[in-house]
Amino acid sequence: MSLTKVSYSMVTGAPFNVADYGASPSASAAVNQAAIQAAINAAVAVGGGIIQFGHGIYQHTTTINMGVGVTLKGMGRFATTLLSSHTGAGVKMTSPINGSTAVFTNVEDLLIKNTNPSNVDGGYVDVAGTFVRMERIGIEGFKHNLILDQTELADFTDVDFEIPLTSWVWLVNDASYTPTALSGFTNRIGFHHCQFNGITASVFDDGGYVHAFNDCNFNGGGNHIRAAAVIGLKISGGEYESASSTNFSFHSTTWQGASVGICINVDIGGGAVIVPTVGQTCIDFVALGPSAVTIGNVYLGNTVNTKISNVANVGALTIVGPVINAGGGPTISGSAAYMQNLMESGASLYFAPISATAVLNNVLFQDSATGKLSFKDSSGVVNALY
Q1: Spatial contact of 365 and 381, defined as CB atoms under 8 Å apart
Q2: Which of 128, 183, 337, 363 could crosslink 150 through cysteines, CB 3.0-4.6 Å?
Q3: What are the tens digits of pLDDT across the range 186-239?
Q4: Mean pLDDT by 10-residue block, N- to C-terminus, for the chain (386 residues)?
Q5: Burial of 239 (0-12, 13-18, 19+ CB in 10 A)
Q6: Are 306 and 334 in contact (CB under 8 A)?
Q7: Do residues 223 and 249 make contact, with C-beta atoms less than 8 angstroms apart?
Q8: Beta-strand (E) ranges in 109-201?
Q9: CA end-to-end span of the chain, whole Å?
Q10: How many CB atoms lie within 10 A of CB 278?
Q11: Rounded CA gap, 288 and 276, in Å?
């Protein structure tokens, strides 16, 4: 009795296994490129599907073009690798700009890696797509490991962003990546339980609505998060350690210098542990303006420098306890500052010396033990307000 080998592609509803199209760890990069793209095109032709990779390293020659409704799925972060050495994007999904296309794309259980030190693009790039998901994957070695340009409703869970050339993530909100792209489309982006490792890398958040970093870990890097023009930015929980510059830095320009405006409605807390390199600042409001900023339930440590600087640029700042100031040094720089509508409740913090030219409007401090309102400067002088 003879048996006939049945491939996955013969089974209705089965994943599109790249092996059935000729891809394998032992195949050439050119063969793998063609096979992977053929599997994706076949899935798109029937309305989408899972592109299944086996164990091993799949070398390919150029950008893999993603399709609507497609899931790229490997055998695990350390089991399946898509490896390239070109200067372009690793995997890219492109939709019509200045609109919203429901792409429903997913990447799961694999590593996207590049070895070219002259790479100029992203490991995974989405342009104008809605419903973008990644889980349990790694991206490594690209100029920007992840580029989201006019992306909406995107979530990244248990993603390992490793040693990019410039940034872990670039959230684009203008025409910097796609010519003629308008602002205001990069909305509802969430990073959950992600790891960010690198020497000088940053998250460049150039604006949009509702961006969240929940329970992530940042290790090394320049600015952990450099933000401008974000309306609704939430940084909750997680550990932020050993930044070579400020952990969180707020601007009115993109990382490339284009003027885009200030952040509005910023919430930093949820038990976040912020531990900068000695001599660096935890939070720097380089340019923020009259916006709603809340800082609370955070640990600020490991530096004798001011932990929260340029408070003069914040129009409405609320500090809620506990904010633990460890490592010495003032919590907030306030020399010659203009501070308005600042209320601190039960937090262990104090200002740098306030000069006679400082303007303080509606600045209230409440002692959680006594309930009294007072002001305390770095010299230890308490000025009771009542």
Answers
A1: no
A2: 128
A3: 999 999 999 999 988 999 999 999 999 999 999 999 999 999 999 999 999 999
A4: 46 86 98 98 98 98 98 98 98 96 98 98 98 98 98 98 98 97 97 95 97 97 95 97 92 95 94 86 85 85 77 76 69 49 45 45 51 49 46
A5: middle
A6: no
A7: yes
A8: 111-114, 122-127, 129-135, 138-140, 144-149, 152-157, 160-162, 167-172, 187-192, 195-198
A9: 97
A10: 11
A11: 21
Residue 312's CB: how many other CB atoms inside 10 A? 17
Structure token digits, residue 306:
């001011």
> CA dist 44 to 30, 71, 94, 103, Å?
21, 11, 14, 11
Q: CB neighbours of 381 closer than 8 A, spacing ≥ 6? A: none
For 81, phi and psi rounded to 5 degrees? -130, 130
- Report the amino acid identity of residue 372: K
Q: Taking a C-beta distance cutoff of 8 angstroms, is the pair 66, 125 a contact?
A: no
Q: Do 80 and 53 touch, CB atoms closer than 8 A?
A: yes
Task: Report how far apart, in Å, the C-alpha atoms of 85 and of each of 31, 62, 79 are.
Answer: 15, 8, 19
